[in-house]
Amino acid sequence: MAKQPKDSKTAQTATESKQGKSGSQQPGRFKQIGMVARVVHKQSPRSIPTAVGIALAVLVLSIVGGFLTGWWLYWITLGVPIAFLAGFVYFSRVAQKTQYAMLDGQLGAGMAILDNLRGDWTVESGVSANRQMDVVHRAVGRPGIVLVGEGDPNRLKGLLATEKKRVSRVAHSAPIYDLQVGNGSGQVPVSRLQRHLMKLPRNLKKGEVGELRNRLNAMPASMQMPKGPMPKGAKMPKGPKPQKN
């Protein structure tokens, strides 16, 4: 999962919350799995029966193998975990497709994918935005700097170009990639965003990535999106009016 910068207060709150819930961590996981299963079943009613069917089919094959060879213990011991794994892998893929389908077209879908990036990634949400709620996120990892835009394609061009120019002042030789999330021409669909980022070449060493993050963190902040959901009817704050001489 991608790393998110935290201040001391947030880190302290997270630590206290973790300590307070340490005894109920395992039930929470089972509850989460149950919630995912209900959502997946609602969107694709045949997915769970199919996953169970795949697991049973693998188990039956192991029983047949044991019957033909006479090595019952070997085949059953091998077949049970493989059967469970086969069913779970199928269910996981269906759950992922369901997640992508639910996120597609939603503002913030790209950030939801960035939050679950694998590897040594650091993600900053809403490093740049405008009054029309177009937003640019920044991910930093071994490939370099990746700017991910969400919103209107035409407005995002200028927003991405401005942010790219801003970070280029401290990027030095680090590559800077920019892309837009969406289903239009030249955009990256939500379902392919994680795969697209993971295929980028590893241009930097781990030490160089750390130095790059420090330089980016030292930059003055640009206009950012407010944290949390935007209330209905909320307007972006206006800048000060120019004074007349």
From TrEMBL:
Residues 223-237 have a biased composition (Low complexity). It is found in: Cell membrane. One of its GO terms (molecular function) is ATP binding. GO terms for cellular component: plasma membrane. The keyword S-adenosyl-L-methionine does not apply. Signal peptide: none annotated. It is a multi-pass membrane protein. Residues 1-28, 217-245 are annotated as: Disordered. Residues 10-27 have a biased composition (Polar residues). This is Uncharacterized protein DUF4191. It comes from Haloactinospora alba. The lineage of its organism: Bacteria, Bacillati, Actinomycetota, Actinomycetes, Streptosporangiales.
